[in-house]
Amino acid sequence: MIEEQLLAVVANSKEIGVPLAELHE
After folding, report:
1. pLDDT, tens digit, for every residue of 3-23?
2. Is-contact 23 9, C-beta < 8 A?
3. What is the pLDDT of residue 12?
4. CA-CA distances (angstroms) from residue 20 to 1, 3, 4, 8?
5. How many domains does the chain have?
6. What's the pTM?
């Protein structure tokens, strides 16, 4: 489940254009 959620976050971040590093901070 966690992996699927991470994939969703990655896809959304790419669409928005926000690096994952900023999301983790």
Report:
1. 999 888 888 777 766 666 666
2. yes
3. 76
4. 19, 15, 15, 12
5. 1
6. 0.40
Between CA 17 and CA 8 the distance in angstroms is 14
**Quick check: 14 and 6 in contact, CB under 8 A?**
no
Where is pLDDT greater, at 6 or 1?
6
Residue 9 sits in which domain range? 1-25
- Integer CA distances (angstroms), 12 to 2, 5, 15, in order: 15, 11, 5
- Give the separation between CA 18 and CA 12, rounded to whole angstroms: 9
